[in-house]
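sorry to bug you again but im stuck and you know this stuff better than me. what follows is a protein written twice so to speak, once as letters and once as structure tokens for the fold. id like you to explain what the token line says about the fold, in plain words if possible. anything you notice is useful, everything is just below.
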Amino acid sequence: MDQRTVSSVIAGRPVADAPGGRILSTNPARLDEVVADVALGDAALLVTAAQAARDAQRAWADVPAPVRGRAIANIGRLVEDNKQALADLVTREIGKPYPEALGEVQEIIDTCDFFLGEGRRLYGQTVPSEMPDKQLFTFRNPVGTVAVITAGNFPVAVPSWYIVPALLCGNTVVWKPAEYSAAAASALHELFCRGGGLPPGVFNVVYADGPTTYAGLERALDAGLIDKVGFTGSSEVGARIGELTGRHLQSACLELGGKNPMVVTANADIDLAVEGALFGGFGTAGQRCTSLGTVICHESVHDEFLTRFAEATAAAAVGDPFAEVLYGPMLDMRFAMRFEQFLGWIGPHHKVMGSSGIGRITAANPRAGFVGDPEAGIFCHPTIVEGVRPGDEIFDRETFGPLVGVTTYRTLDQAVELANAPGYGLSSSIYTSDATEAFRFRRGVSAGMVSVNNSTSGAEAHLPFGGNGKSGNGSRQSGQWVLDQFTRWQALNWDYSGRLQKAQMDVAELTPDRDFRL
């Protein structure tokens, strides 16, 4: 397969050197396959990119919004024309099953399709004044220069959630993707710049590791070069990003981790619930922010659900992501090592099921029905842990990987309490045939997203995406709601009376007769 050479691009020009060193991005399903040779930048390079974006921002904002919308339309069409090639690259670089990778690329197309029209719908309002010969207006203005920092589990879809609306609204962008998905990021950057015909400096990309990125972001913020930060990643790092931007009176757009609950009620369709738990818990090897964390099952159907769920998990195909499998490898070796730590949280009061072993799948620790050669990549057993409860780390904390906890409840209030207990608030699900239960759960759960008779995973491009608590600061991506992240409202009052009219003072009043009675 072709190996890419990937380097940062600033003001339309590739960066020749690698001040942050070089790394190889390898295929996690076939570790001997190098996908990209990646040149990393340093903190100074991120500042340079921010300056280039700052220099280009005013001219980009002066491009009429409908024209920027046409740029987004052209990006969408070019991505559509390259859908299979981009999906193939995503699967090779991070091991996401090819059908899921196709779905991820489709999400970019859907996002572009939605926002191309927003170029003609960046509406303000005409507001009536309390005084004569005076008009009030509101306008959406771009924030300015946006830094976008994203994870690699959705290396092309999630970045588009930030970058498409940011560009549409007249902002310029500095994007720092994950190093282990640099080839997919480079391809997406090329598609955006060529498809959109973007001027130099409007969309810049910098490859760097985490500490370097934080240092560069801090320097760029101190220099007044960044006006908004969008971050997708762990809750711990998100808290640091939020603290850093808060020093500059900015509110970052934070999309963080989750411990997403799925409630299975006494009247649920068990087969459907099992299907949702299997995809939600183990799709993408459990490496989604929306992955199912804990099944909260009514005690009357617990045994039946658990038996069917364990059987379905044991029978699921795992392995080569280009084959028909439930999931492929871990994204990168760092996630496999961290998953081993999560498995260390399993206690003596837990019951483990779902596979013929736990941890990494190898010849010595095989998985029945594995598709391909487990020794070639980084594959882990699907793990169901029954009997989790509040106070267990495995219940309280995000476990990024193919691991699902199961617990029981008696009343719906107890189920809601268990769903909220870990303190995250991203996605949630309830399986029920009772509409009353569905709406009671919606009202009580703290999650920003609720599914009824569907899994915890699965976003659509025109709905708000985001979480609360440890999962985010209430900011939302996707749909019209994200416009508030990348624009600022400006109010205009225009007095053409020819005299100074003072609000709240020079206001005509009508005198009511409050003593009147019928």
